[in-house]
Design brief:
Mean pLDDT: 90
Largest sheet: 4 strands, antiparallel
Low-confidence stretches: none
Distance between the termini: 41 Å
Structural class: alpha+beta
Number of strands: 4
Strand content: 15-25%
Helix content: 25-40%
Strand order of the largest sheet: 1-2-3-4
Radius of gyration: 17 Å
Length: about 90
């Protein structure tokens, strides 16, 4: 099966040849270890994932370089080495 066939088979609640694989978020140091100088999409291709995860971009009101107010009015801070937003 191709990646597309595999994913649609699962969405149709049928059994694929193997379980489709993906990662929601990949740390930059992991990407660098697998594909030096590459990006998330290079990583996906290198490891053979079936799905490329993307996220919608919502308007943000920035309070400072590490803090913003999201579309629901929740103040979020970018923390950790990956600058992941948390409330």
């Amino acid at each position: 099966m191709t990646s597309v066939e595999r994913v649609f088979t699962v969405l149709e609640r049928k059994e694929p040849d193997v379980i489709p694989t993906f990662e929601w978020k990949v740390a930059p140091n992991v990407i660098e270890a697998f594909v030096p100088g590459g990006d998330y999409f290079d990583f996906v291709e290198k490891v053979g994932h079936d799905v490329v995860c993307t996220a919608p971009v919502y308007e943000k009101k920035w309070v400072n370089k590490d803090t913003f107010i999201d579309e629901f009015g929740i103040t979020r801070c970018l923390i950790g080495p990956d600058k992941y937003p948390v409330a």
